[in-house]
């Protein structure tokens, strides 16, 4: 079967790996002209995530390029510590830059999978027997299946399911990451590092955390700007945080030197458990994305494992495979829908900030960490059929 995968981030190459191993002919199309380096750090939590990475043969490579453990200290304007969020909570069992993870997955698949960079899907026509796909640059082609692994703003979801506004729900805040984390040099000892964060009502600035060199969060209704326009993103952050003290003036000055700036809303994808339609399926953030919820990368690799495994089990019968995939991931993906990091990290009031700081030092926070660990493993991970290709 000929399978087109849209997106060469995390879910896409993960799908390509398993599809090839099970004997499918996979093509991955990616809008960017090449793999995107750097980016914010992502993490994996618990036995389930690590088992899938191990079965893919990439766990050792991921560990070799992991970031260090970084605690995040919340401080007042004078720099006095108010509370600490442990690195185990924010970084899981293993944390790695998104670009490094994408490179590892690409290297595992590049020799066996067709990658098409610098192009994107513009139209899908599902005839019932195949899918005719039109591209922005390349010639139209037909595939047996099309799998959308193209993120929270998925083009495939828009073409096959409907407008983004029907499925992506703004949760009232924006976040911005800029620059790679300072704690990613694998030549340094794995000592515990510390980043620093400061709140004012409705705003958060993070200096040197594990996810990026800088991170910002702020309350806002939907904004009208182009996500690819880094200059616009920089202006929004500079304007929004111009009145913040602490390290913010120095951070904003450094922001001008950062090329890799990404600003987006904190949003949640709500597909109501139906991630497939006809010969099209969604995987990863396009299907069950929830910005900064802490489980997106794990859900992407597990979802890819389940979808490819169900297709192999059903011998390519996409109707049976898609139904099984929907059933399994409908339950497991609830973990993404049950959290919203925005109110926790950037409370709207001074009282909310004080309550959050108290919570971080309480037994309730420990219980929340245990719940997250349990939820990350709340799936019966099937050992799918023996591999067809070595």
TrEMBL record:
Segment forming the signal sequence: none
Top-level taxonomic group: Bacteria
Q: Which PANTHER family match?
A: MONOOXYGENASE (PTHR46865:SF2), OXIDOREDUCTASE-RELATED (PTHR46865)
Q: Name one GO molecular function term.
A: FAD binding
Name this polypeptide is given: 2-polyprenyl-6-methoxyphenol hydroxylase-like FAD-dependent oxidoreductase
- Provide the species name: Nocardia neocaledoniensis
Ranges of residues in domain FAD-binding: 2-314
Lineage, highest ranks first: Bacteria, Bacillati, Actinomycetota, Actinomycetes, Mycobacteriales
